[in-house]
Amino acid sequence: MSEYDAYKPGKLRLKGEKSKSKKRKHKSKHQSEEKPQIDSDSIKHGNWWKISKIEDITGAVAIEFGSHVYVKALDNGLFTLGAPHNEGEGPSPEEILTGVYISERKVAFKSGYDKYLRVDKSGIVTGRSDAIGPMEQWELVLEDGKMALLGWNECFVSADDEDSIIAKSKRAGSEQFLTIRSHTFKEVNNLKDVPEEEQANLKQIEINYVKKFQKFQDKRLRLCSEAKKDLKKAKQDGYLHEALLDRRSKMKADRYCK
Known about the structure:
Layout: H1 29-32, H2 40-44, E1 49-50, E2 59-64, E3 71-73, E4 79-81, E5 97-101, E6 106-110, E7 116-119, E8 125-129, E9 138-143, E10 146-150, E11 156-159, E12 165-169, E13 179-182, H3 202-213, H4 229-237, H5 240-250
Antiparallel strand pairs: 1-13, 2-5, 2-13, 3-4, 5-6, 6-9, 7-8, 9-10, 11-12
Helix pairs in contact: 4-5
């Protein structure tokens, strides 16, 4: 087990914070019968969905710069940009933070080493604090669909030329724009109603079902070589399973094919 995995998140030490009970909202019969919408952006990021409001910054979150590149915690209390991930992958364990919603303007973040993030006097983002104080609080700035994080020093978070995470710019530009992703409320995207095999692009969906129903003992994939353009229409019209079965039957690769 790595040093990172040895740390276990503890209780928050923010004084004066009161837990808020959440009222359950009952869906109407009409709502429950609606066809679930698949969040393609979330699927491309391993089912980590894009946060658009500050109250969603709670639980497991990751800070993304660019595309599929996340802020990574180091064992010395500093942060850097991790290696780019492939499409369909989520962040690595060292890239997962715990978000803490404080108020309508403020949040805090805790690393996997059980330390809170702050900006030091030289503008370097560190994770060495044991509790949340004024310097561990961050302001989420949202404007025109863009997102940035403002530290206590009135500077925005970004990465420098060496990929170290800093907060030194008084203005937010392209280098300061980021995305915060969450893995906490997966049901927001209605993915709980979507079969696991279908939480991917069409190519991967077909592979998933071939693996599930193939009858060959050698377990080698037999995929239909015909174009997949008809699958997109089949998915939109609600007969994707029939279309996939038809393609598998042409390869004699399904246990249910005659």
